[in-house]
Write a structure and sequence with these properties.
- It is a single chain.
- Helices cover about 25% and strands about 30% of the residues.
- With about 180 residues, the protein is α+β, with helices and mostly antiparallel strands.
- A hairpin with a 5-residue loop joins strand 7 (about 115-120) and strand 8 (about 125-130).
């Protein structure tokens, strides 16, 4: 089922999310719906807060970036209760966009490598080191479960320049080609 994507300005995008466990209702179905929603919106990641759920769950499929970034081949993961436990000092800049902020993309600097602990869709524990564009995509979605969006990483001048666009998004005037939920 294709779910509406919550747009910038909705309070669920600014709240830290809560952990879930195996008793979370219809978890497998929710994950499938998130994949369907993400693919329909032509994204490479989607976090539960973006569909209005304040839980620590996100999905990433970086395969669509493989033409420009070969290391993204095969990087498709479900992250439940993720926690970044280490970040490299070396940083990387990447132009990011977001399904909750349609029409906006900005250069964002993030750690090039992270170590992250999480549960997969089968609730099996993982402790992985992820680097490059895969790390950027993962950190972008991780931000959502922490109550942040990618424009929080750009300077105050760029945010001021984006102010009118952000206002339009929060009013439903962004022209997204997918179902949205407005604040």
């Amino acid at each position: 089922m294709i779910l509406p994507i919550y747009q910038y300005g909705h309070k669920v995008l600014r709240q830290p999310s809560v952990e879930i466990d195996a008793s979370y209702p219809n978890l497998k179905e929710l994950i499938e719906n998130m994949w369907d929603t993400m693919y329909k919106a032509e994204g490479c990641g989607l976090a539960a807060p973006q569909i209005g759920l304040n839980i620590r769950l996100f999905v990433v499929d970086a395969n669509e970036l493989v033409d420009s970034y070969p290391e993204c081949a095969g990087f498709k993961k479900v992250f439940i209760n993720a926690e970044i436990i280490e970040e490299s000092e070396e940083e990387m800049t990447f132009r990011e966009g977001c399904l909750s902020l349609p029409g906006i993309s900005e250069e964002v600097k993030r750690p090039k490598t992270i170590r992250i602990k999480y549960l997969d869709e089968n609730l099996e524990q993982h402790d992985e080191v992820i680097s490059g564009v895969n790390a950027i995509c993962t950190q972008h979605e991780y931000d959502h479960i922490e109550g942040h969006v990618f424009i929080d990483h750009v300077g105050p001048l760029r945010r001021r320049i984006l102010k009118n666009k952000l206002t339009n998004i929060s009013k439903g005037k962004a022209g997204a080609h997918y179902r949205v939920a407005l604040p």
